[in-house]
Design brief:
alpha/beta, single chain, Rossmann fold, Zinc Finger, Delta Prime, domain 3, Helicase, Ruva Protein, domain 3, 16 helices
Length: 348
């Protein structure tokens, strides 16, 4: 443990350049945009471009690929032109960079061209280019880093969406924020686009009614309605909601995924004692998810029935992905087991 702390301290000490938030980056001679979250990286890069363009409309913008690189290109596009316009060079694919690029980039960061901003995009998907990243982070060439870590946990997605509205100076109700992140539980790009649409199309505070008007018909939202009814023990209501979702074109796979997500959360929370905030921190969830799971567990669930339901969902997941010729029956059987807390065909 002590060795791990020493290693972490050493890593921090080696990072000599400023660490910039991706929502509020600023230009520097060398800007390293690192991490896998592409939407955040795109936002950061566009923000720097907009800042430079606002300062001087004659900005020259060049895009390069580090993995398909012609020797001498970096120095050529960063060198001052006859009229001395500022230059922005955006370099993608640094995690797959060629030897030629790596060699020239290492030389360039030692003496960046005046009036040039070079943005290096490294997704972190490989260790290729690590020597360059280390040199930027420990160098004195006026560099800065914009970290774009993966956004994969529910509380992180909710924070991302909340930040979209906060950055725009708009308020969104907590219930509206929850509904929005549940409706777009897949691709973060879709969630970002949904936030921007609400900002552009509406005025004032964002309420749950507004979110429902725009996105209430999404498959994910319908899926959670089915899961909520079944987990509450309302078998009839769950079947009706399921039929409505299927008639509206819902895909069986995300319907099963919604059940799996809620039951996994319930299983993680079951038996834990303490404040919701502390449990949420330990499980990397939001407070409201813990509170909701606790309420769901109070509707007749035990360790045995929870295990039975999880097994039913796992079976349905395999069946709707090709293990059964009748995915609708697989869904109905899953709903029955979850809602009745009993094996299919057996009265609770």
């Amino acid at each position: 443990m002590a060795a791990a702390r020493r290693s972490q301290g050493s890593t921090k000490a080696q990072t000599a350049i400023p660490q910039l938030p991706w929502r509020r980056p600023h230009a520097a001679p060398i800007v390293l945009v690192s991490g896998p979250e592409e939407i955040c990286a795109e936002r950061a890069t566009q923000s720097i471009r907009d800042q430079l363009k606002a300062e001087d409309p004659s900005l020259e913008v060049t895009d390069l690929r580090a993995d398909d690189y012609a020797a001498g290109t970096l120095l050529g596009v960063t060198s001052p032109s006859l009229f001395g316009e500022p230059r922005l060079v955006r370099v993608g694919g640094v995690e797959k960079c060629s030897d030629a690029f790596l060699q020239e980039a290492l030389a360039y960061i030692e003496a960046p061209q005046e009036g040039a901003t070079v943005i290096l995009r490294h997704t972190g998907s490989s260790v290729r280019g690590k020597k360059l990243l280390d040199a930027i982070r420990t160098g004195t060439g006026g560099g800065a880093e914009v970290a774009c870590p993966a956004i994969k946990y529910d509380r992180d997605r909710e924070s991302f969406a909340a930040g979209e509205f906060q950055h725009a100076g708009r308020r969104i109700a907590p219930s509206a924020l929850r509904a929005l992140t549940q409706a777009f539980s897949g691709d973060l790009t879709e969630l970002a686009a949904a936030c921007q649409q609400l900002l552009q199309d509406t005025d004032g505070d964002i309420t749950e009614q507004i979110v429902d008007r725009y996105y209430g018909g999404r498959v994910e939202s319908s899926a959670f309605e089915v899961a909520d009814a079944a987990i509450a023990g309302n078998h009839g209501s769950a079947l009706i909601t399921l039929r409505h979702a299927l008639d509206s074109g819902a895909d069986p796979v995300p319907l099963v995924a919604a059940f799996a997500m809620k039951l996994r959360t319930m299983a993680k929370v079951a038996g834990r004692r303490g404040a919701s905030r502390q449990i949420a921190k330990e499980l990397r969830m939001t407070d409201w998810q813990v509170d909701r799971a606790r309420r769901d567990l109070q509707s007749g669930w035990s360790e045995r029935t929870l295990g039975l339901a999880i097994q039913a969902v796992a079976r349905a997941d395999a069946e709707v992905k090709g293990a059964s010729r009748d995915p609708v029956f697989a869904l109905e059987r899953m709903v029955a087991v979850v809602a009745t807390r009993a094996p299919f065909g057996v009265a609770a």
